[in-house]
Amino acid sequence: MALKRAGDIVAAFVAAWQARSGAEIAALFAEDGDFVNVTGLWWHGRAAIAQPHDYALKSFFAQTTLHVGRTETRALGPDHALVRCRLTLRGQRAPDGSAAGDRQTILCFVMARGPKGWQAVSAQNTEVQPGKETHVAQGESITPTDYRAP
Fold this sequence. Notes:
This protein has 150 residues and is α+β, with helices and mostly antiparallel strands. It has a single domain (6-129, 137-145), classed as Nuclear Transport Factor 2, Chain: A (Roll). Helix content is 18%, strand content 44%. The protein has three helices and eight strands.
């Protein structure tokens, strides 16, 4: 699916999310597009983008909503742009079925304009950890950390 403006990707992504359709999310990407999720899983191509989104949207994200915050579009030339948006995810279920807390991410899209309009060629979703500077790996866990003195 090609878009009229690069920045239209945000509303289209949210609409596909709310439709619970991995295929609709993948259709926003070029055939050879890629997507890196919040845990660093890296999917190449529409089919590889569609499958895990569809699974998540029909299971632990089945009752979630995305709320759009700050959004910026930066032109990288006449036919390329970077679109960044802050998203708040609400309604996720924990593995035990209980309600999980709200999460915030920054989702970045690299957009390219073709003959039919704009499509994402790459996306990366980064988890926001308010008040933290970095992560510390210890054994099997990674903990958001702040080194600044209290």
